[in-house]
Amino acid sequence: MHSTIGIDIAAPPDLVYRLARDVTRWEALLPHYSRSAAIREDPDGSRVCDFVARRPFVPLLGLGMPVTWRSRTWHEPVTRRLRFVHVAGATKGMDVTWTIEPVVLPDGAAGTRIEIAHDFAPAIPGFAAFVDRVFTRPIAGRTLATFRAIAEALHEEASATVPPTST
Fold first, then answer.
1. pLDDT tens, 24-35?
2. At 67, which helix (H) or strand (E)?
3. CB count, 10 Å around CB of 75?
4. Residues 6+ apart with CB under 8 A from 130
5. Among the listed residues 111, 112, 129, the one whose alpha carbon sits nearest the alpha carbon of residue 120
């Protein structure tokens, strides 16, 4: 099964990429993540990381479920891509690509489009669709929304502190 989720951000792609590329900081940046730790660093620059994110089920009551996965992850600076291959657990084999690209926003301003593509083909029929609907999309959507809020706040602050150029 292939699924994609995306969001537009009113901030430059390089800023968004710098925020997202170090996945070990996600637990500090993303309130729904309680763990994003490297358990192994490989010579090729990739890492194997453990992730734990909370998937809310009844947000008003604060009820949620911790969701865990282990991924081999790396980032590609030239293309601004983040890559994840799940290496253990129920989602073993899931292949995830984050694409971070420049876009013209509806108001004509320059911004960023992030798309997260998930490819998952487990042996159990219907399991990929269940995982996508119940876990992947809610967690990825929250992750994207949080990165948008952080990037736009940083970009707005940086833009406000730059003195105007004289002509």
1. 999 999 999 999
2. strand 63-76
3. 20
4. none
5. 129
pLDDT-derived band at 73, boundaries 50, 70, 90: very high
Q: Is 17 helix (H, G, I), strand (E, B) or coil?
A: helix
Q: What is the pTM of this model?
A: 0.90
The closest alpha carbon to 89, from 125, 49, 143, 137, belongs to 49
The DSSP call for residue 133 is: I
Q: Express the helix, strand and coil content of the chain in percent, nearest 5 each.
A: 30, 45, 25
123 and 1 in contact (C-beta within 8 Å)?
A: no
Nearest to 94 by CA among 114, 67, 76, 113: 67
11: amino acid identity, one letter: A
